[in-house]
Every structure is written in C-alpha cells, then in structure tokens.
Amino acid sequence: MKKIGFLSFGHWTDSPQSQTRTASDVLLQSIDLAVAAEELGADGAYYRVHHFANMIASPFPLLAAVGARTSRIEIGTGVIDMRYENPLYMAEDAGSADLISGGRLQLGISRGSPEQVQDGFRYFGYQPEGDDHAAMAREHTSVLMEVLKGDGFAQPNPRPMFPNPPGLLRLEPHSPGLRDRIWWGAGTRATAEWAAQQGMNLMSSTLLSEDTGVPFHQLQAEQILRFRKAWADAGHDREPRVSVSRSIFPIVNDLDRAYFGREGGSGDEVGYLDGGKARFGKTYAGEPEKLIRQLAEDEAIAAADTLLITIPNQLGVDYCAHQLEALLTQVAPELGWR
Question: Which residues form the Luciferase-like domain (predicted)?
C-alpha cells in the first residue's frame, strides 16, 4: 500500500493552448484539483515553489485555502527553497496553514533548484558567507526545525500589551507535530543521509544531481536505502517517510494518446545541472497493462511509501483529474498500491 498524490508545477502561460493563462487561474485551479483528488481517493496535493517565474511562489495562502476546502488529503510542497526564507516567519505561516488543515501539512523544503535569476535570494535580503548557498539553506533549516519544537526562546517585555505566560515566549501559532512532517528534498545520496541525521523525512524527485552509471530508479533506491540506514543509526524514535516523484501518464483514450503517445519510449537522461552531472528519470506513458509491467520494475517506487505524480497542470483540472483517476483505478490496484 502506498500514499499516492499529485505534484503540480503550477505553470501559467498566456497562450490559447493553456488552461492556466494567469496566476489567478493556477491558484484557483490548484484548489479545485485538490478537492477533485480527494474525491477520487488520492492521498496528497503537493505544489512546486519557484521565485521570479510564472509559477507558484508563495505557497502558504494556497495551502491554507486547500486545507479549508478539503478534509482528508495531505497538502504540501515539493520544495520550498530555504535560501529565500525567514525561518521564523515561515514557522508562523506553516503553523497557521497546518492548524487550518487539521494537521495535514507535509512541508517539503530544500536548498532549491536552479533559479530564474542569478542569486535571487539576495533580493530577499539574504547573503551567504562566501558562495556557500547550501550552508545558508541548511542554517535557515536548522532555525526552522528548532523553533517548530515549540520551546520558548524570546525574552518577554516587562510591560506587554497583553499578559504573558511565565517564562520565555515561543512563536505562535504553534502546531504540535508539524516538526515531524518536514521533508528534505535531497538531490544526492549524501544529502539524503544528512536529512536523516536531522530527523527530516526524505523527498526525492525525478532527478538526482549525481550519476554512477546505473539506471535512475536503482540509484534512487540506493539513496533511499542509505537514508533509512542513517535514520536508524541516528536513533530517532519514529519511522521516517519517503516519497518519490514520477511522470506517469496512463493512456486510456484518444486524447491521452494525442498528448502522450510519443512518450512511451523515453528513457533516463544524463545531463548537467548547476555545473555538475545529473541523471533524470524517464517518463512512463502507455496503456495501463504496459505501465503495470514497467512500474513493477521500479526499485525506488517499491522502496518508498509515498508516490507523487507530476501532473500537466496547464491542461486543466478536468484532464488532470482524469489522469489521476486512471492511475488510481486501472494501475495502482494491480501493483498492490491500493
């Protein structure tokens, strides 16, 4: 059994071919798709976050709105670039969204992906020491994880506007349990081990920023194995969660075939990302019987407890819901995921 959700890149394009031509279209349709996904029996609604692009950039208002319109489905991000974040303000926003949803927030964070502008975090007021962007992201993450514990750390004003409880003050609103629902988007085996040591769940995407020559799903399965070992070695007192993302398109009608019929023969790709070698996973597209055979051989999906399906959000809510329904009813049961 697996949790199955969607991951939306949240694109909009002012084009006659796009169902999402404005930011408003994307935000409102993102809410509608989460509602539809919950009705179909999906388990998660996740959204990518990118700055300076025609994509979702400020996720917490959206997550709060989705939380208010749904009752069961998990809601999350994949991922928030921590180089841009004020971790204290972020903790307040995340706590509010989590309380509105009744504790369903699953917050994916990371060092981030290639940016639309050069060192965009500088415009947000953050400057790493030297050029160590990753260290700054990890420092912001460390602060976030600490304040999410809910311990007091701020000295109260002796003459406050409102009476204070005794002792040091914590950030409010505090949402108990949210700290255990933070995921790190790891692009390498080493960063997965680091995430385990910090007590964060693992979120692994459709690419890894390293390549050992083995197929993508095997490299990702090794990443998951190393994460779980590092978790056990760290002695945490709960079981971690692991998600992987995949592009999976069941072809069950002529429209599906027109959109994705040529994707069925794709394979892994090797390229360069941020100056380093990277391996990208293939797209799965085909009739359900073909997908069942192919997905049964994906070692990383087998090792994960959560599968996030990347959806073509510019094709609209109805089509994305159709794709989710086909996967949930015609593919997932045959693989034992349902």
Answer: 9-254
